């Protein structure tokens, strides 16, 4: 069977190349305690203040599974439409890090808690693509080595040691940096909707190991390199673009790709070698002797399944069917659960399309400029909805609506003024009196006789007069009435 054509090929000296991508995403489980201890997991605590004897690998200390973490892993697996394995095994993955006190990581290898699933990603051209999920397994995080606190010494912070991670491994189904970025965006959205990971890449709660290889389309898979711990969606795109071209240049120059682990340097936009890539057998996995196999009933799974929220894809489909939104608008609104909730609160019982336009346009622009999240919006969904009502019943024009929104945004929730109060206080009600509008039109026409003559020859110029009238009335004249009167007085048929 031939492979589908890839429109994202990279041009090289010897022809076009295809990049093949698979991601291993490490998502920190949202829980109050670590995977095998009761130590806290709060971000930003003083170094080595959230470390139990288990995390520090003190002799005789035994790990005890945190069932909240198991529940979160199963919840995530269900959200990824994946196979849930009622029987799984924890293994010891042996390797040395200065901040790994045990000398091994408790992870899962041959028998993970979650098996195969899938994610549908949304691409910029409006199309979608299904990316396979190979597995999800639970494992411990390592601690952190700090090298910039002393000229001669390195410090070790074990606060992260033992923190529960979900490693979510994709199939090598992605073929461009844009697809990889879309995958991480969608995965992060799903995790946030589920409440299983906060997705904060800046704090390290979500990070990706990106596996990159190149080939001529239709050829067998090439040798891959792993780019370790990329912690932003923008950097993921940059790292892939650089690494793919690096590999292409080596191959076209007659060389071969060494399988290795590399790091991305965001300052230079380049990847650099970190270490030779170990194969799985080099890690020396074996079942952890201190932990029984992880088993749970189907009732446990069913109970979690019954509590799942409406996920982004389902919500997007509902927004399109119930509110008549385009796929593009619905996709933007459901990207974050808070944005979707805000929209629904504002749209209920009124023109949803107008609400969507105002949320995506004015509100998102204002929040972005102010550096705010939607949960901290100075404009409540109720007040935004009320503003749309004033626009819908012709109390105000669209231009005035923008002005009122800005006033509401600047005043903030402390002022608490509704849009109707602002409109009344500022005298911003739309002028619908045809006599008043006609007088304004006559005034503009009389002041511009040369343009009147031109407009009769070029009817498209009528728009200029409409703009002038709207300006002279402070945007309060009804635009439809203005347009109609301008065309009539110029003798232009609608």
From TrEMBL:
Catalysed reaction equations from the record: L-glutamyl-tRNA(Gln) + L-glutamine + ATP + H2O = L-glutaminyl-tRNA(Gln) + L-glutamate + ADP + phosphate + H(+); L-aspartyl-tRNA(Asn) + L-glutamine + ATP + H2O = L-asparaginyl-tRNA(Asn) + L-glutamate + ADP + phosphate + 2 H(+)
One GO MF term attached to the UniProt entry: glutaminyl-tRNA synthase (glutamine-hydrolyzing) activity
Name listed for the protein in its UniProt record: Aspartyl/glutamyl-tRNA(Asn/Gln) amidotransferase subunit B
UniProt function note: Allows the formation of correctly charged Asn-tRNA(Asn) or Gln-tRNA(Gln) through the transamidation of misacylated Asp-tRNA(Asn) or Glu-tRNA(Gln) in organisms which lack either or both of asparaginyl-tRNA or glutaminyl-tRNA synthetases. The reaction takes place in the presence of glutamine and ATP through an activated phospho-Asp-tRNA(Asn) or phospho-Glu-tRNA(Gln).
A single BP term in Gene Ontology: translation
Domain (Asn/Gln amidotransferase) ranges: 341-490
Source taxonomy: Bacteria, Pseudomonadati, Pseudomonadota, Alphaproteobacteria, PS1 clade
Subunit structure as annotated in this protein's UniProt entry: Heterotrimer of A, B and C subunits.
Pfam families from the UniProt entry: GatB_N, GatB_Yqey
SUPFAM superfamilies, A to Z: GatB/YqeY motif (SSF89095), Glutamine synthetase/guanido kinase (SSF55931)
InterPro entries: Asn/Gln-tRNA_amidoTrfase_suB/E, Asn/Gln-tRNA_Trfase_suB/E_cat, Asn/Gln_amidotransferase, Asn/Gln_tRNA_amidoTrase-B-like, GatB, GatB_C_1, GatB_Yqey_C_2, Gln-tRNA_amidoTrfase_suB_CS
Family designation: Belongs to the GatB/GatE family. GatB subfamily.
Superkingdom of the organism of origin: Bacteria
